[in-house]
Design brief:
By secondary structure, the protein is mainly α. The protein has a domain at 1-176: Serine Threonine Protein Phosphatase 5, Tetratricopeptide repeat (Alpha Horseshoe), CATH 1.25.40. The chain has helices spanning 2-7, 39-46, 77-90, 94-106, 113-125, 129-141, 148-160, 164-172, 180-192, 196-199, 202-208, 215-229, 231-243, 250-262, 266-275, 285-297, 301-314, 320-332, 336-345, 355-367, 371-383, 390-402, 406-418, 425-437, 441-453, 460-472, 476-488, 495-507, 511-523, 530-542, 546-558, 565-577, 581-593, 599-621; strands at 29-31, 34-36, 55-57, 64-66, 72-74. A three-stranded antiparallel β-sheet has the order 1-2-3, with no helix packed on it. Strands 4-5 form a two-stranded antiparallel ribbon. Helix 2 (39-46) crosses helix 4 (94-106), helix 28 (495-507) packs antiparallel against helix 29 and helix 32 runs antiparallel to helix 33. The chain starts with a helix and ends with a helix.
């Protein structure tokens, strides 16, 4: 094992694996006609919880049990204990099983290797590698034969929990020869964590141990190298792989094709694809689909269609995924006619369209405000035996709400519930937002409450949407109650929520409370936006506190938030309303000369101020 020690140099901070056997004493209790081997078990921390223990009848402790016909048959108490241990592990009572194992070994019983292996495996599955290592130590000290499978479970547990150094330490101390699974487990873990330098040493160690790395091992290493160091280095590994007698398969080549595409070298990827047959490998549908997806992502749909035609000529049948990539691309570009052509091609080439084939088309029609056409294709979809999923309905509901047809959206939502269709949180958020947009606040609140009754927990988006809607219609108290409810559930308000709350409070004239929320927002490390600053300045101006609003403008600029045209509009109007129309008019002209506001805004506000001045003069003369 010296070669492994040299190759995997472990740093000084590796913690020692504790495999000491716990100490303790044991005894037995007599309860009526039953005997319980539990006293030591209690000392392990079970505090007299007897219902979990196996009962042993009289005679069993002496190794004898009377049969019904009066003939004594031999029964080992040790076997009974191991039966009990196996039962605990089978029932998932791992902690109890571990304590019972300690009890057994402390009194000299030989633990069952199968039960201990199961315990190690189960503890590793839930990330309790220290406990698994302790059981391995107990098993080792008992003199039991530990095979490679047990070591593999422990190494796998450490790798799964990210403790690679401990896994390598176990590998280095194995008392039996590792097998291919041992190396593969460590190798996969190193590749997943992009520790390529160490991962590349594994195949060499395998060869020294006469465990030959297979095509899967090399393919995974090539994939990790592509992601970390690029295709150039991966090609060197491909050559090394072949020189060691390991033949690449189509999966290996697909990894390289994907790597070339990710580097943006699509023409080179196509040339590489065309050479595969000369390498003794037939490209499959995945090989073609990887390139086709990259061509679409790069906007090269004509080349993608040529590649599709080439596939068909070669007898390589496209998959549903292949066709769906094309449909989605055409729909995103607004080329719905071409998307429909691809959809109609699918059955001719043995592919049945699924919801992912129809959804982009339905969304495309909705984006073009052709909701009727979208519904038509929904009906076609169903008539062809393809049933809509929640994404389909969400697309339609979004379109209806944008079009102001919220009653139709609510009707569809109710129909889904009636038919037992499980609506998602997103579905409710769409309809709630639609109702609030058209001012149907009470119906939106009803839907919000319905969600909770159906077991759908509102998220930050739901709360922010409903709070904003309530505050906009002046229902400040209700909005703040929901804000408090949201915070009590551990959800932190985001910038959207705070924007709604500060705006709502300012509109209601509660500027003091708005400023408190503003300070709370800054305390959370959230940077206020111009809308929040403007809301507070508007509230201050409305309450004849324009001088404070101007101070707030200075604070806004000092904090790096650029004032908007609305900012200046609010402040100049505030100055005018406090009885300084002439100063306000001069300020408008100055702001315009500096390019901070548009001429149209200046002219509009100048006309308004002149009208107010005329009205005030007319009143004073009367």
């Amino acid at each position: 094992m010296a070669c492994k020690s040299e190759l995997f140099v472990l740093l000084g901070d590796i913690r020692a694996i504790d495999i000491r056997k716990p100490n303790g004493t044991c005894s037995r209790k007599h309860l009526g006609n039953c005997l319980f081997a539990v006293s030591k078990y209690e000392n392990c921390g079970l505090k007299g919880n007897l219902q979990h223990f196996e009962r042993f009848r009289k005679g069993a402790l002496n190794g004898m049990e009377s049969s019904p016909d009066g003939v004594n048959s031999s029964l080992s108490f040790e076997d009974s204990e191991n039966d009990h241990l196996r039962m605990l592990v089978k029932n998932g009572e791992l902690e109890e099983g571990s304590k019972f194992l300690e009890y057994m070994t402390n009194k000299g019983s030989m633990p069952d290797v199968i039960a201990c292996t199961a315990l190690i495996h189960e503890f590793c599955k839930i990330g309790r590698t220290k406990k698994a290592t302790q059981i391995m130590g107990i098993l080792d000290e008992s003199g039991a034969v530990i095979d490679v499978t047990i070591y593999n479970f422990l190494i796998g547990g450490y790798c799964k929990s990210g403790e690679i150094k401990e896994a390598l330490r176990v590998l280095d101390r194995m008392s039996v020869a590792p097998n291919a699974d041992t190396y593969d487990t460590i190798f996969h873990s190193l590749c997943d964590r992009m520790k390529l330098k160490q991962a590349m040493e594994v195949p060499d160690i395998e060869l020294q141990s006469k465990c030959y790395p297979d095509v899967v091992t090399y393919t995974e290493l090539i994939d990790a190298t592509c992601k970390e160091n690029g295709v150039g280095q991966s090609m060197k590994l491909l050559i090394e792989m072949m020189s060691k007698g390991c033949k690449p398969n189509v999966v290996t080549y697909n990894v390289l094709i994907k790597g070339i595409c990710n580097e943006g070298r699509l023409d080179e990827a196509i040339r590489f694809l065309n050479k595969l047959r000369s390498y003794g490998c037939n490209p499959d549908v995945i090989s073609h689909t990887i390139i086709l997806h990259s061509l679409c992502s790069g906007g090269r749909w004509m080349d993608a269609m040529k590649l599709l035609a080439s596939m068909l000529r070669k007898g390589c049948s496209p998959s549903v995924v292949t066709f769906n990539i094309l449909i989605k691309f055409f729909c995103q570009k607004g080329l719905l006619g071409k998307a429909l052509n691809v959809l109609e091609m699918m059955p001719k080439h043995g592919c049945t369209p699924n919801s992912r084939s129809y959804n982009p088309l339905i969304e495309g029609f909705c984006n073009e405000k052709s909701v009727d056409r979208a519904i038509e294709y929904l009906e076609i979809m169903v008539s062809r035996g393809c049933y809509p999923d929640i994404v389909t309905y969400n697309i339609l509901l979004t379109a209806l709400c944008k079009d102001g047809k919220v009653d139709d959206a609510v009707e569809i939502l109710n129909q889904l519930s009636f038919e037992g269709f499980l609506s998602s949180l997103i579905t409710y958020n769409i309809v709630i937002d639609g109702l609030l947009t058209v001012g149907k606040t009470e119906r939106a609140v009803e839907l919000f409450e319905e969600m909770s009754r159906k077991g759908l927990e509102p998220d930050i988006v739901t709360y922010s949407t409903i709070i904003d809607g309530l505050l906009k219609v002046g229902k400040t108290e209700h909005g703040l109650e929901l804000l408090e409810e949201m915070c009590s559930k551990g959800m932190k308000p985001n910038l959207i929520t705070f924007t709604s709350v500060v705006g709502g409070l300012s509109r209601k004239g509660k500027v003091h409370e708005a400023i408190i929320f503003f300070n709370y927002l800054e305390g959370l490390g959230i940077t206020p936006n111009a809308f929040i600053y403007n809301s507070i300045m508007m509230g201050l101006c409305k309450t004849q506190q324009t001088s404070r609003a101007i101070d707030f403008l200075a604070y806004m600029v000092a904090n790096g938030c650029k004032p908007t045209e609305s900012t200046y509009n609010i402040l100049v109007k505030g100055i005018s309303c406090e009885g300084f129309p002439e100063e306000a008019s001069k300020l408008w002209n100055e702001l315009y000369s500096k390019g901070l506001v548009k001429r149209s805004l200046v002219e509009k506000n100048t006309v308004k101020m002149q009208k107010k001045t005329s009205m005030a003069t007319a009143k004073s003369t009367h």
